[in-house]
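User: Thanks for the earlier help. One more: Inner-membrane translocator. Can you show the sequence and predicted structure together?

Assistant: Of course, both are below.
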Amino acid sequence: MSLSRLALPMAGLAAMAAVAALSGDFQLRFLAEILLIGTAVLSLDLLIGFGGLISLGHAALFGSAAYAAAIAAQHLGASLPVMLGIGIAMGTAVAALMGLVILRAGSLFLLILALLFGQIVWEICFHWREVTGGADGLRGLPPLSLGPWALGDARSLFVLAGLLALGSLGVARSFVASPLGRALIGTREQPIRMQALGYTLFSVRFRALLVAGAMAGAAGSLYPFVNLYVGPQSVHWTLSATMIIMLVIGGVGSLWGAFLGTAVYLALQTYVGAWTDRWQLCVGLLFVLTVLVMPQGLASGFLRLTRKGRTP
């Protein structure tokens, strides 16, 4: 691997070490939440930014994996490899079911079908009280562990979330550069020509959705252990819409912009929300300004400013 490719992971690990050493428990858990939700937004970016597949059911992939991990932890214990395996399997399975339902449609119909599929998952989580806890959700989960080591403290959770985010970013970059990623972009830009070349649009998009589902499932599997709680809002369509807002703010198609948009949104929700109930107005204003001034997102704007600063 070249030094240029190693630079970003090494910088990320160095930043994680500095933050873990200097931050308190609340900040570390908050940052872990940003990284996990940001990973889910990153998986959505693969579909929207490179496939043109706008989904209002993406929270179903993330939240169903969170529920599966939380339920399994109550019966099997919260072993990290087991939780990750269950989350990835659940996210992939739900993505497969969703793909069979929605990917034969297009444009507005795909959006509506994804919304309806996500609401079916929400109905199951909300009304199957004996398993999911219903409206109360699941609380009091055991802390994560890896063999004899307990990983339930804030610093461990932050490091795990950071490693997952870096790994997912690497997987996303590899996916975009792979033949499947190139084909996915082709189905967005020239679907008729791709069919003429022998590609099946459903097959390309279905496999991309499986990759996104596995990535969102991995993030969802760790999410319940940050606050030791998971509720039906984690699969609701409003979270899917929020993920789209985060992605637009950060930058559709930028990959790392998914984390930037998530951080900005959650920071406004947490810190501005503690000051006023109208924090959503601030989010709306930022969203409108981003679309008007930096339509490619904050990540692209940041890179342009950086390049201008380097120009003599």
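User: Great, one quick takeaway?

Assistant: The first strand starts at residue 138 and ends at 139.
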